[in-house]
Amino acid sequence: MLNHKSYILYLKSAFASLPVILLIGGMLVEISIGGAFIAYFLSQSGLGIRLSQDALAAAQAGVEDTLIRIVRDRNFNPSPNPYTITVGSNSVQVTVCKDTCVGSNKFQIDSVGIAFNKQRKIRAIISVNNLTGEVKLESENEITIQ
């Protein structure tokens, strides 16, 4: 059995340990919240890069789709212009300009790939020889979206 003096000493040490326990617990909670934020932002940055690459691949698919349509029909004029296609879970908006944008017997293709909130744009110039029917890709560049 504890006498009165030892009981008071016991209570004082218990009260003294309470702030230490709360301080250590608070620090552990802060460290775990900080770790969760760091993990979230690291995973989001990787996801953003992947979505950007998906948007670029979708834009490339839009250029290739239009190239196939031009090979099949040298006077290809989409209706509506721009037209939209779906590539996997992404979408592509393709605008085709014939003869007026880059010269006679040429097509300018602007393809914007959209993956969630990321967009990438590719511009391709295609020339068509009306005599031989040859379709040739003159240039293909990624351009900034304004």
- Structural class by secondary-structure content: alpha+beta
CATH architecture: 2-Layer Sandwich
Strand order of the largest sheet: 1-2-3-4-5
Uncertain runs are none
Counting DSSP H or I runs of 4 or more residues, the number of helices is 1
- In CATH, what is the class? Alpha Beta
Strand content: 25-35%
In total, the number of strands is: 5
Helix-strand sequence: HEEEEE
Question: How would you state the average pLDDT, rounded?
Answer: 87
Query: What can be said about the biggest beta sheet?
Result: 5 strands, antiparallel
CATH topology name, in short, is Pantoate--beta-alanine Ligase, Chain: A,domain 2
- CATH-level-4 superfamily name: GSPII I/J protein-like
Proportion of residues in helical segments: 40-55%
The termini sit apart by: 82 Å
Total of domains: 1
Q: Compute the gyration radius: what is it? A: 32 Å
Shape type: rod-shaped
Topology (SSEs and partners):
Blueprint: H1 4-72, E1 83-87, E2 90-98, E3 106-115, E4 118-128, E5 135-143
Overall description:
By secondary structure, the chain is of the alpha+beta class. It has one domain (4-143): Pantoate--beta-alanine Ligase, Chain: A,domain 2 (2-Layer Sandwich), CATH 3.30.1300. Helix content is 47%, strand content 30%. The protein is built from one helix and five strands. The chain has one helix spanning 4-72; strands at 83-87, 90-98, 106-115, 118-128, 135-143. The chain has a five-stranded antiparallel β-sheet with strand order 1-2-3-4-5. A hairpin with a 6-residue loop joins strand 4 (118-128) and strand 5 (135-143). The N and C termini lie far apart (82 Å). The model has no long low-confidence stretch (mean pLDDT 87).
